[in-house]
């Protein structure tokens, strides 16, 4: 009960932002909220937002955990392309669906293991470590697809991208179920505490007995897993693997979703649910601009504006200025913190 | 031997070896024509990479340059199409905009104490968005001045030619080397990369230097955009996506420490040429696929990051046991 | 004396308060031309605060500072540098990636037409270093030279920039004997030239070797300024550590040192370059105190015991069985706990709540899959907040907002929650106010009575004497004495610390 209330308070700004954006879209595009059922499946702009936002939402899940450890994963877009290519190649080869999925997801985990190894064992800065795979990844994906757009017609694989279950598109179900499952997993176990601890103070965490290298590795592997799922969805949706364009620049959208969700880029406290809402905010802006007849060109400018606003809010300088104003009431606390 | 030259020497050795292998297989690749084309084809990347070198030397990163190049290109194309302004005036205007753009990012990084990564990410979105707003079409540039500029080149013996833009890139590298090693600003850039706090204690004007670094990067991205518009005779807002990655790769392969403080502008030129060489080889070969470029560059990137980590480890080890 | 014309830098009645603590309380300090003046005191005594007030890194609250008889108030270190006060720190505050010459001339490189005259700069740098008897290639990166050379370069830069007062903040901490000799030769040369030199160190030999006068601070107050030649070493240690040193005698402990068998035994335990091999035995229900000056190997001993550093010699046994202590995690599995000296970087997880900080080590040991429920955490936190009297308005408050003493108690609670058998406390009472101080001492005695084995490192000798059943004394990164039973007096500790390491000789 208590924790539910706390979660509500934590998510309030994101929900307000999302509501405002939805209202704005609704004002210029009144049909936005209308839903229709055809062939036992829901259609409508709202469903569209949920559906199109699936890849970024999935990536944001892993990215949130990685950022909470004070890291970053630039390679997720490229990993999406690799996993999509692996899945398509496997499907074209005639592998059974299960094997295809295992191969794709295994590839994602392997990519995550590589990143995690560089970060936690070789101690390379995350931004640099994951850059390697970001640069090479698309080449590897093209190597798998041999440069062509690999198309397939396995109905099972296609179902992941464009099928529907309980009237909802599969991608919506996948990101929703997966996102909530991971969120529940980290909250219901001690993972959230241990991850936040590492992100805030890695040395003190190790001294308290936390297995820092293992957890760091796991965070990057989760990110790889998310990229694999996102890659599967994108590939299944277009019924082919496009090594050049699958997941292009989605790492940046995923980072943006995490930032919009209020998780600090400096690590520590995190909320996966908030990042999911963040991903939906980004997608709502995208869809809204399309629907309202604005040229899509404004999309990027709005994203830039969102980053700048959040930067200003999160800036340590601004925080110092703010605490200066509230210092009168909390003077003692702040003062104690500054000694020593 | 001074170990600060080690990555640079490694880069040079790789380049010479690679060229030797190429020339052995395809003697044609030794011709001045290929060498000239190598410069022309990579001119815009090289110029932008000089700016990136300064940014990385100072311990920062600039993700916006690809977008800024595209913005400059489309800005020039639309200006020359819709107004009667002379290209040179348009150049000056474009450079002023991109320089100010970079400087503002530098100011935000310094004064709001935010990571360069996220600030320049916003810059990347903004510049690309502005490019889209100007036009989403590919707009050809038909101004006669462009045609005139293309007739300037220096003929090499053997039929090769150093085009205006190829020459400009070499000139920018020369000036970049001069700035890096012979000006107080250059030393301050290295100082920032060595440690911002220590630099401030030693009297380096950290704020001014940061703003100048990103301003310089913006200026060179703008110049790169001009070169790119000359190279393609068009402006297109979707052009040069991901050039920042190529530039970062060129800088690191050129021997600059990605964490800042050590490296050479000249090394970046070799880094750019290695990338160009891989592409040229693949074109010559015909059977090899283009994706090997990316994989090879990624592998080189990894090798250099590892090598620098190793050098750092060895030198620290040596010092504690000195 | 304050107005003696020979004084170059005079600080009078300097006060500096930080919220919640008085770092400097009306401290007087005077520095003469052509003298080396040692500034001594344990951590937290206020010497670095005094230095920072003189170099402009801090602004003093009140009091006067005069250079050459003129009142000054440096805004920052650059300002102080321009006025003539230069500082060289232990961690060389230069840029290792720049060349030696660039470091010396950063921001004032000789130029022609806007371009740096590199050759001219290198020539001048070489000439400057020649004066110090250093002949090196000044075009090479600074980090390619030894710390000693870097130290000299830092001195050369500071003197070249400032030229009146030179402050050396633990410059010899990481130098070997020969390098120290070279440095001292240079410092003596500068003294001849009439510079005033402030020298901070924790090596007493060096103090007697180099300094003309000594000023001792303790707890933010001036203890006294004396001429080095007329200050016996024992008296100096007394000034630094004890107050009146009314020879606190040991009250025989009830909980017996003889009672329990040896539970933890470290034999010939050590790590090259960190601490010489030592033997340590700790019984159940016993506190073993570790005394020694700063830099004597106290913290290194603690880090070795807890597996932060791996021992490269010797064995560890628990109840006669060899124990694996290769990492903190392994040590924790053997029911070890460690409260580090630097709470901020090694102890607290600043943004996490008091509750989470207390539950952390227990949770880490249980593993991620067996979480402590919210209710268990709350119960745990509430129990220890009450038991240790941790003063916080709310158990959900981020721990960084608590005062030092309460942070210390919370970290202690973190370990107590794991039900440890062996606790290592590194300076548990440092930087916390007097009230909390007494409580922590009471806690240590309680824990001991409950059967825990403790190793406590402290520079507060009375404290150690009060609760230890045995005391190990460290000097120069080696265990040099062990005091038992009636031998445990502050007097004996001071004697053991001060005993000139004659056998060390010139090495």
Automatic annotation (TrEMBL), chain A:
<feature type="transmembrane region" description="Helical">
    <location>
        <begin position="300"/>
        <end position="318"/>
    </location>
</feature>
<feature type="transmembrane region" description="Helical">
    <location>
        <begin position="49"/>
        <end position="67"/>
    </location>
</feature>
<feature type="transmembrane region" description="Helical">
    <location>
        <begin position="12"/>
        <end position="37"/>
    </location>
</feature>
<protein>
    <submittedName>
        <fullName>Sugar ABC transporter permease</fullName>
    </submittedName>
</protein>
<keyword id="KW-0472">Membrane</keyword>
<feature type="transmembrane region" description="Helical">
    <location>
        <begin position="157"/>
        <end position="186"/>
    </location>
</feature>
<dbReference type="InterPro" id="IPR001851">
    <property type="entry name" value="ABC_transp_permease"/>
</dbReference>
<keyword id="KW-0812">Transmembrane</keyword>
<feature type="transmembrane region" description="Helical">
    <location>
        <begin position="246"/>
        <end position="266"/>
    </location>
</feature>
<dbReference type="GO" id="GO:0022857">
    <property type="term" value="F:transmembrane transporter activity"/>
</dbReference>
<dbReference type="Pfam" id="PF02653">
    <property type="entry name" value="BPD_transp_2"/>
</dbReference>
<feature type="transmembrane region" description="Helical">
    <location>
        <begin position="273"/>
        <end position="294"/>
    </location>
</feature>
<feature type="transmembrane region" description="Helical">
    <location>
        <begin position="98"/>
        <end position="119"/>
    </location>
</feature>
<feature type="transmembrane region" description="Helical">
    <location>
        <begin position="126"/>
        <end position="145"/>
    </location>
</feature>
<keyword id="KW-1003">Cell membrane</keyword>
From TrEMBL, chain B:
<feature type="transmembrane region" description="Helical">
    <location>
        <begin position="6"/>
        <end position="26"/>
    </location>
</feature>
<keyword id="KW-1003">Cell membrane</keyword>
<feature type="transmembrane region" description="Helical">
    <location>
        <begin position="211"/>
        <end position="231"/>
    </location>
</feature>
<dbReference type="GO" id="GO:0005886">
    <property type="term" value="C:plasma membrane"/>
</dbReference>
<dbReference type="InterPro" id="IPR001851">
    <property type="entry name" value="ABC_transp_permease"/>
</dbReference>
<feature type="transmembrane region" description="Helical">
    <location>
        <begin position="88"/>
        <end position="111"/>
    </location>
</feature>
<feature type="transmembrane region" description="Helical">
    <location>
        <begin position="63"/>
        <end position="81"/>
    </location>
</feature>
<protein>
    <submittedName>
        <fullName>Sugar ABC transporter permease</fullName>
    </submittedName>
</protein>
<dbReference type="Pfam" id="PF02653">
    <property type="entry name" value="BPD_transp_2"/>
</dbReference>
<feature type="transmembrane region" description="Helical">
    <location>
        <begin position="243"/>
        <end position="275"/>
    </location>
</feature>
<keyword id="KW-0812">Transmembrane</keyword>
<feature type="transmembrane region" description="Helical">
    <location>
        <begin position="295"/>
        <end position="314"/>
    </location>
</feature>
<keyword id="KW-0472">Membrane</keyword>
<feature type="transmembrane region" description="Helical">
    <location>
        <begin position="117"/>
        <end position="141"/>
    </location>
</feature>
<dbReference type="GO" id="GO:0022857">
    <property type="term" value="F:transmembrane transporter activity"/>
</dbReference>
TrEMBL record, chain C:
<dbReference type="InterPro" id="IPR050107">
    <property type="entry name" value="ABC_carbohydrate_import_ATPase"/>
</dbReference>
<dbReference type="InterPro" id="IPR003439">
    <property type="entry name" value="ABC_transporter-like_ATP-bd"/>
</dbReference>
<dbReference type="Pfam" id="PF00005">
    <property type="entry name" value="ABC_tran"/>
</dbReference>
<comment type="similarity">
    <text>Belongs to the ABC transporter superfamily.</text>
</comment>
<feature type="domain" description="ABC transporter">
    <location>
        <begin position="9"/>
        <end position="244"/>
    </location>
</feature>
<protein>
    <submittedName>
        <fullName>Sugar ABC transporter ATP-binding protein</fullName>
    </submittedName>
</protein>
<dbReference type="GO" id="GO:0005886">
    <property type="term" value="C:plasma membrane"/>
</dbReference>
<keyword id="KW-0067">ATP-binding</keyword>
<dbReference type="InterPro" id="IPR003593">
    <property type="entry name" value="AAA+_ATPase"/>
</dbReference>
<keyword id="KW-0762">Sugar transport</keyword>
<dbReference type="GO" id="GO:0005524">
    <property type="term" value="F:ATP binding"/>
</dbReference>
<dbReference type="GO" id="GO:0016887">
    <property type="term" value="F:ATP hydrolysis activity"/>
</dbReference>
<keyword id="KW-0547">Nucleotide-binding</keyword>
<keyword id="KW-0472">Membrane</keyword>
<keyword id="KW-1278">Translocase</keyword>
């Amino acid at each position: 009960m208590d924790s539910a209330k706390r979660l509500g308070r934590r998510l309030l700004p994101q929900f307000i932002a999302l509501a405002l954006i939805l209202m704005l879209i609704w004002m210029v595009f009144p049909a936005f909220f209308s839903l229709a059922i055809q062939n036992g499946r829901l259609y409508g702009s709202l469903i569209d937002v949920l559906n199109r936002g699936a890849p970024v939402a999935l990536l944001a899940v892993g990215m949130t955990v990685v950022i909470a450890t004070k890291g970053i994963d630039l390679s997720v877009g490229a990993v999406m392309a690799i996993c999509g290519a692996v899945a398509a190649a496997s499907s074209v080869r005639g592998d059974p669906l299960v094997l295809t999925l295992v191969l794709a997801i295994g590839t994602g985990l392997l990519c995550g293991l590589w990143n995690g190894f560089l970060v936690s064992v070789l101690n390379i800065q995350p931004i640099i470590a994951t850059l390697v795979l970001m640069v090479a990844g698309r080449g590897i994906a093209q190597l798998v697809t041999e440069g062509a757009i690999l198309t397939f017609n396995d109905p099972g694989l296609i179902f992941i991208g464009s099928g529907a279950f309980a009237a909802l598109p599969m991608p919506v179900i996948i990101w929703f179920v997966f996102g909530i499952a991971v969120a529940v997993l980290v909250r219901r176990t001690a993972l959230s505490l241990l991850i936040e601890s590492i992100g805030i103070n890695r040395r003190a965490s190790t001294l308290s007995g936390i297995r820092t290298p293992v957890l760091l590795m796991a965070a990057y592997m989760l990110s790889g897993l998310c990229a694999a799922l996102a890659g599967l969805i994108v590939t299944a949706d277009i019924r082919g693997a496009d090594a050049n364009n699958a997941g292009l620049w989605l790492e940046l959208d995923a980072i943006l979703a995490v930032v919009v969700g209020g998780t600090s880029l400096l690590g520590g406290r995190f909320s996966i649910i908030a990042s999911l809402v963040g991903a939906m905010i980004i997608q709502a802006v995208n869809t809204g601009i399309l629907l309202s007849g604005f040229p899509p060109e404004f999309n990027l400018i709005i994203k830039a504006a969102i980053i700048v606003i959040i930067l200003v809010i999160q800036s340590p300088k601004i925080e110092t200025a703010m605490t200066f104003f509230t210092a009168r009431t909390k003077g003692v606390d702040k003062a104690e913190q500054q000694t020593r | 031997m001074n170990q600060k030259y080690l990555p640079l020497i490694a880069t040079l050795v790789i380049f010479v070896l690679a060229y030797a292998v190429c020339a052995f297989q395809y003697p044609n690749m030794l011709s001045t024509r290929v060498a000239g084309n190598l410069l022309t084809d990579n001119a815009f990347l090289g110029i932008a990479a000089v700016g990136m070198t300064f940014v990385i030397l100072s311990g920062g990163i600039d993700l916006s340059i690809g977008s800024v190049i595209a913005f400059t290109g489309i800005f020039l194309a639309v200006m020359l199409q819709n107004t009667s302004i002379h290209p040179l005036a348009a150049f000056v205007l474009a450079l002023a905009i991109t320089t100010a753009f970079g400087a503002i990012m530098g100011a935000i990084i310094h004064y709001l104490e935010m990571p360069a990564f996220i600030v320049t990410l916003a810059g990347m979105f903004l510049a690309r968005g502005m490019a889209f707003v100007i036009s989403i079409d590919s707009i050809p540039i038909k101004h006669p001045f462009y045609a005139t500029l293309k007739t300037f080149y220096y003929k090499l013996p053997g039929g090769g030619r150093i085009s205006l833009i190829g020459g400009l890139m070499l000139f920018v590298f020369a000036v970049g080397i001069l700035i890096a090693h012979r000006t107080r600003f250059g030393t301050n850039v290295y100082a920032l990369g060595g440690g911002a706090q220590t630099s401030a204690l030693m009297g380096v004007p950290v704020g001014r230097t940061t703003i100048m670094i990103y301003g310089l990067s913006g200026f060179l991205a703008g110049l790169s955009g001009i070169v790119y518009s000359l190279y393609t005779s068009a402006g297109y807002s979707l052009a040069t996506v991901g050039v920042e990655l190529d530039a970062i790769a060129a800088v690191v392969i050129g021997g600059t420490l990605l964490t800042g403080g050590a490296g050479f502008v000249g090394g970046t030129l070799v880094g750019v040429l290695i990338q160009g060489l891989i592409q040229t080889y693949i074109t010559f070969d015909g059977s090899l696929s283009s994706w090997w470029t990316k994989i090879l560059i990624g592998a080189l990137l990894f090798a250099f990051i590892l090598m620098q980590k190793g050098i750092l480890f060895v030198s620290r080890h040596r010092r504690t046991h000195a | 004396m304050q107005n003696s014309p020979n004084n170059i830098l005079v600080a009078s009645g300097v006060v500096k308060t930080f919220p919640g603590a008085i770092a400097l309380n009306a401290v007087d300090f005077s520095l003469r031309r052509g003298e080396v003046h040692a500034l001594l005191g344990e951590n937290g005594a206020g010497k670095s605060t005094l230095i920072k007030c003189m170099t402009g890194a801090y602004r003093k609250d009140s009091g006067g500072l005069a250079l050459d008889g003129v009142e000054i108030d440096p805004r920052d270190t650059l300002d102080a540098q321009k006025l003539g006060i230069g500082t060289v720190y232990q961690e060389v505050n230069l840029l290792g990636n720049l060349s030696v010459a660039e470091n010396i001339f950063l921001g004032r490189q000789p130029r022609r037409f806007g371009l740096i005259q590199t050759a001219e700069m290198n020539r001048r740098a070489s000439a400057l270093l020649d004066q110090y008897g250093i002949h090196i290639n000044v075009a090479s990166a600074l980090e390619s030279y030894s710390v000693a050379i870097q130290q000299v370069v830092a001195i050369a830069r500071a003197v070249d920039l400032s030229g009146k007062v030179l402050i050396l903040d633990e410059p010899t901490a990481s130098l070997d004997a020969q390098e120290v000799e070279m440095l001292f030769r240079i410092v003596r040369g500068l003294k001849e030239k009439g510079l005033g030199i402030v020298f901070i160190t924790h090596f007493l030999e060096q103090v007697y070797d180099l300094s003309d006068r000594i000023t001792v601070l303790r707890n933010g107050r001036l203890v006294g300024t004396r001429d080095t030649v007329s200050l016996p070493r024992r008296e100096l240690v007394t000034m630094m550590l004890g107050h009146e040193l009314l020879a606190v005698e040991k009250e025989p402990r009830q909980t017996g040192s003889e009672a329990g068998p040896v539970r933890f035994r470290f034999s010939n335990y050590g790590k090259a370059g960190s601490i010489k091999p030592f033997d340590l035995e700790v019984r159940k229900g016993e506190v073993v105190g570790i005394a020694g000056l700063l830099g004597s190997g106290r913290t290194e001993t603690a880090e070795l015991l807890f597996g932060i550093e791996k021992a490269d010699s010797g064995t560890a046994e628990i109840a006669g069985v060899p124990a694996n202590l290769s990492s903190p995690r392994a040590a924790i599995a053997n029911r070890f706990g460690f409260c580090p000296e630097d709470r901020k970087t090694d102890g607290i997880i600043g943004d996490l709540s008091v509750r989470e900080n207390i539950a952390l080590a227990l949770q880490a040991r249980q593993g991620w899959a067996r979480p402590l429920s919210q209710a268990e955490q709350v119960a745990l936190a509430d129990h220890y907040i009450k038991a240790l009297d941790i003063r916080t308005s709310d158990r959900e408050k981020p721990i960084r907002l608590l005062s030092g003493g309460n942070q210390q108690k919370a970290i202690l609670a973190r370990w107590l929650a794991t039900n440890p058998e062996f606790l290592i406390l590194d300076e548990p009472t440092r930087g916390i106010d007097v009230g909390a101080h007494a409580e922590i001492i009471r806690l240590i005695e309680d824990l001991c009575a409950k059967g825990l084995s403790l190793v406590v490192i402290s520079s507060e000798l009375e404290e150690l004497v009060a609760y230890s059943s045995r005391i190990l004394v460290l000097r120069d990164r080696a265990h040099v004495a062990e005091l038992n039973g009636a031998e445990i007096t502050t007097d004996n500790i001071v004697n053991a610390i001060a005993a000139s390491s004659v056998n060390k000789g010139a090495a």
